[in-house]
Design a protein that fits this description.
The protein has helices spanning about 10-35, 40-65, 70-95, 105-130, 145-165, 175-190, 210-225, 230-240, 250-255, 265-270, 280, and strands spanning about 140, 195. With about 290 residues, it is mainly alpha-helical. The chain starts with 9 loop residues before the first helix and ends in an 8-residue tail after the last helix.
């Protein structure tokens, strides 16, 4: 084996492969729904996108628990994400809502394309910063994570389909998904920070009340799977918007976080522009600002 050949961690890679598989099956179901004109296939597509979110949450945690985080895993995860959380949701919302927007002509597919491009740019920015080892906090994401964006748009699409199949009149409200998709596109490439919840793992300990609330929420979500996922994902989206005004104490409690490290904005800008950090250019260590 070549010295430059990456070593592939088995369990995290299997989780990421599950992510890719779910995204591909979701796309197949969207095409079946398009040709057969059946909502059932769109239901399946949304379920597989949400399953991909679960696999995406597991692969990083499995890698961190086993100490097997690697550049290979990071790149593979991004490739999986662009399929499951970029292409699949863009096709889903285009087929159900955006294709009906014809004033001005082409606006629907343009919104889908912008969402996909912004998702890809967000993943590329994340990989650049991670590869350069910028001293940024691992406890928050810069910009809305693309799995969360896909979860928001897919769960709300599920709600729209469910209401429509039950004879609920939603009228033009479904076109709000177009505006939401445009907003998510911006949030993914914005500088807003969203919590990563990476501190949550198998060793995380919380009070009895937190555990009880978690059990109730999970059970309630399973029983009301048509609309509860949208409540959870939209709550996360809104929390990111309101996070700058949340007190540090409440932020630590909600995010299960003890402390955070400030991002060196100058170093981050240099990395995104393809330039080395100041300490690397001069060949000296100038210290870490905390």
């Amino acid at each position: 084996m070549s010295a430059h050949e990456p070593r592939i961690p088995v369990l995290p890679t299997l989780m990421t492969a599950g992510n890719i598989l779910c995204g591909f099956v979701a796309i197949l179901q969207i095409f079946d729904g398009r040709h057969l004109d059946e909502h059932q296939h769109y239901y399946y597509a949304i379920v597989f996108i949400l399953l991909a979110c679960l696999f995406d949450a597991l692969d990083g945690r499995v890698a961190r628990m086993g100490g097997t985080e690697s550049p290979f895993g990071r790149e593979l995860d991004s490739l999986a994400d662009i399929v499951s959380f970029g292409v699949a949701p863009a096709l889903l919302v285009h087929d159900i809502v955006l294709k009906e927007i014809d004033t001005p002509k082409g606006l629907g597919w343009l919104i889908s394309c912008v969402y996909l491009v912004c998702g890809a740019m967000r993943l590329a920015r994340f990989n650049c910063l991670a590869a350069a080892d910028v001293k940024s906090s691992s406890k928050s994401f810069r910009g809305c994570p693309i799995p969360a964006a896909a979860g928001v748009i897919s769960s709300l699409t599920l709600l729209v389909i469910w209401l429509d199949s039950n004879g609920k009149e939603i009228g033009n409200w479904k076109y709000a998904l177009a505006g939401l998709m445009a907003l998510l596109s911006y949030l993914m490439v914005s500088n807003l920070e969203y919590p990563s919840f990476k501190a949550v793992n198998w060793r995380t300990k919380r009070s009895f009340h937190w555990v009880l609330i978690s059990i109730v929420v999970i059970a309630f979500t399973v029983m009301n799977w048509h609309w509860m996922p949208s409540v959870i994902f939209v709550t996360y989206l809104l929390y990111g918007l309101a996070r700058p005004w949340v007190s540090r104490k409440w932020r630590q409690e909600i995010e299960i976080d003890a402390e955070s490290i400030e991002i060196d904005a100058d170093a981050e800008t240099l990395v995104l522009n393809g330039e080395p950090e100041p300490s690397r250019r001069s060949g000296h260590d100038h210290g870490v600002h905390i």
